[in-house]
């Protein structure tokens, strides 16, 4: 029997699934990776560690499934997007650390671009807002800040990689330097209409085209491993999750609760240019034709629960947060705005910072934990409101995945505060499943999207039951709290 090996390389670790023809995880592996914070607002990772830990997760997944390479029909890769690195073309080694997607070191560069009136032009080509989140200013910073690297890049001796490109490079022993449409669309260098790197943007950021990878549809034979396994899919994690949730028709919407919270709506064959602080991005393509999505990202979601655990010591493990939140009837008027890395959609304030408001003497551990969970749902609701305004479509169902989706309190509060039905699948790893489905479709492991949709197995539905007046009161308080958080780092 053959299987698909799906790699989901995320911000805090790599998950690997061995997936059978029924869409069931037959084996599973996981390995954590480190993040480094050399200066306030800076986030870095070690590319060599990413590769090492990915290999460990692959080994664990194969051992748990009791399989070898000969049992693997294809590999699919999903990855954290925007994280940026340079590698030496000849030796294939990373040039320093990778700059993480959350890193704010290029905020001033983005401010200058906005002041110079580049916002509309960049958005028209890329679908993106100008923000340090995306790869272009990170690449520019590396080329300008690392000694001798600009000259090496101009001579063709240095290559740019997002994480997917790095994994493909390593899996193929340096034979393939490639990415897919979805990852390329997160660089702020890729024209989502022509499906090519944009010469004007390359000139604006002073980035030589020679360092960039080739770009292909998500479902594609990118290359082969040393043992001959085809790498048959590559996709940015959120586009992969949209596919893994079987959101194949315009209007279908998912949210992934990972380190951040990422909301995507399928908008079909035409991009929708946002007027409400969202991103137009590329969804997964299986036939070479462009498919699009509207996206909103909250930079801190599950990470706020990690903060409660690791920095504040209020909980020992993430699942405690659910119990503590349910012990009390409300958060006693507390609002936590977890803008630790600024605010993403729909606010896009790089200078916002984490803010806790509404404290009284009676507030304690349970109230703070509940406020942290509620903050995740509030951020997602702000994004959903913007998506409905841009798309002119009413969201009737929100398909959820990611670690925090296991929290019943959060899911019910999400349903209540957004006034939408929340659908939770049995298997949460929809990002990895999306990568598996894309790879399987390419090699005929599965026959069609309809077959993929039939494999989706729901575990629980949450329906809104909050009084509308109370909902509006809570959201009004949240908006006041967000306004307090904005502009703090100026």
Number of domains: 2
- Computed CA radius of gyration, to the nearest angstrom: 21 Å
Q: What is the count of helical runs?
A: 16
Amount of beta strand: 15-25%
Number of strands: 23
User: What fold name goes in the CATH topology slot of the largest domain?
Assistant: Nucleotidyltransferase, domain 5
What characteristic shape results from the CA principal axes?
Answer: globular
Full CATH superfamily name of the largest domain: ATPase, nucleotide binding domain
Give the N-to-C terminal Cα separation.
59 Å
The CATH class of the largest domain turns out to be Alpha Beta
Largest sheet: 7 strands, mixed
Low confidence ranges: none
Q: What is the averaged pLDDT score?
A: 92
């Amino acid at each position: 029997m053959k299987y698909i090996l799906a790699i989901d390389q995320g911000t805090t670790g790599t998950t690997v699934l061995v997936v059978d023809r029924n869409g069931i995880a037959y084996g599973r592996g996981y390995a954590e990776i480190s993040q480094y914070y050399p200066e306030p607002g800076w986030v870095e990772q070690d590319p060599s560690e990413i590769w090492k830990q990915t290999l460990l997760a692959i080994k664990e997944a194969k051992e748990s499934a009791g399989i070898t390479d000969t049992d693997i029909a294809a590999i699919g890769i999903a990855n954290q997007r925007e994280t940026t690195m340079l590698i030496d073309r000849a030796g294939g080694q990373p040039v320093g650390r990778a700059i993480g997607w959350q890193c704010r070191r290029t905020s001033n560069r983005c401010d200058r671009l906005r002041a110079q009136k580049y916002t509309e032009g960049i958005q028209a080509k890329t679908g993106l807002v100008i923000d340090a989140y995306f790869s272009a200013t990170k690449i520019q910073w590396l080329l300008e800040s690392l000694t001798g690297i600009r000259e090496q890049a101009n001579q063709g001796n240095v290559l740019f990689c997002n994480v997917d490109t790095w994994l493909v490079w390593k899996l193929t022993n340096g034979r393939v330097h490639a990415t897919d449409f979805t990852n390329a669309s997160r660089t702020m260098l890729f024209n989502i209409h022509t499906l090519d790197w944009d010469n004007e943007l390359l000139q604006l950021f002073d980035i030589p085209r020679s360092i960039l990878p080739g770009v292909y549809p998500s479902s594609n034979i990118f290359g082969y491993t040393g043992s001959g396994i085809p790498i048959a899919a590559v996709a940015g994690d959120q586009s992969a999750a949209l596919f893994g949730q079987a959101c194949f028709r315009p209007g279908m919407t998912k949210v992934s609760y990972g380190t951040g919270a990422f909301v995507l709506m399928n908008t079909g064959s035409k991009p929708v240019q946002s007027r409400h602080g969202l991103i137009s991005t590329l969804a997964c393509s299986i036939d070479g034709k462009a498919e699009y999505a509207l996206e909103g990202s909250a930079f801190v979601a599950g990470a706020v629960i990690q903060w409660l655990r690791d920095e504040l010591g209020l909980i020992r493990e993430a699942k405690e947060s659910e119990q503590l939140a349910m012990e009390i009837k409300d958060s006693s008027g507390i609002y936590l705005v977890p803008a630790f890395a600024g605010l993403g959609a729909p606010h896009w304030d790089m200078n916002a910072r984490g803010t806790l408001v509404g404290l009284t003497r009676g507030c304690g551990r349970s109230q703070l934990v509940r406020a942290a969970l509620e903050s995740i749902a509030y951020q997602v609701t702000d994004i959903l409101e913007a998506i409905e305004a841009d798309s002119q479509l009413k969201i009737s169902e929100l398909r959820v995945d990611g670690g925090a989706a296991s929290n019943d309190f959060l899911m019910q509060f999400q349903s209540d505060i957004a006034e939408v039905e929340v659908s939770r699948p049995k298997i949460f790893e929809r990002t990895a499943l999306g990568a598996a489905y894309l790879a399987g479709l390419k090699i005929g492991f599965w026959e069609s999207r309809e077959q993929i949709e039939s494999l989706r197995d729901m575990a629980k539905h949450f329906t809104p039951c909050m009084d509308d007046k109370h909902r509006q009161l809570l959201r009004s308080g949240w908006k006041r709290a967000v306004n307090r958080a904005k502009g703090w780092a100026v």
